[in-house]
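Regression test attached.
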Amino acid sequence: NAGVTQTPKFQVLKTGQSMTLQCAQDMNHEYMSWYRQDPGMGLRLIHYSVGAGITDQGEVPNGYNVSRSTTEDFPLRLLSAAPSQTSVYFCASSYSMRANEKLFFGSGTQLSVL
Amino acid sequence: QQPVQSPQAVILREGEDAVINCSSSKALYSVHWYRQKHGEAPVFLMILLKGGEQKGHDKISASFNEKKQQSSLYLTASQLSYSGTYFCGTDHSGSARQLTFGSGTQLTVLP
């Protein structure tokens, strides 16, 4: 099992460019989410999905779009990159969103916006 | 509301013990603990549900005090492999769809 796969691992963008961070899981997980990690801030939730066709906003959704057309994939789109979006992005999934379900994290994408 | 973790950083010698605390200003339903090594993804340690249970995982255990709205992670007889940043994630609704993570505790274990 591959688990949660994120691509790319590293990306450099110029301000105003758009791009999509890919996330795929092969565990038939219902719940998927995107977090950003900044120094001293911990992990902050951007968007999440509880199933195909269902998405919702987290704590810091501005500047990002998501969609979930299949159970396996949950891409994160940066519409017009800004330097404030320089961060490490993690995709995470769990079997369900019940309180006792653990999260499986991808290996992360380090994004720099110049 | 981000939970507050303390201490922010701790340095230990191999074999010493450590306690990491996670406090919330809101009533907790569950607390999740994860460990992240530098440059890697966070890895699950344990989940505690309200009810004040204590859990153990090798020499790492945790408690959950519902009244005080806090959880503590106990690392006993620390090993070099315990080094990393520990995060608690709190859930207030009974659904982990919007876990809120603390800013982390950096643990360094020296030989």
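Expected vs. actual: identical. The interface with chain B takes residues 31, 33, 35, 40-45, 48, 50, 56, 58-59, 90, 94, 97-108 of chain A (CB under 8 Å).
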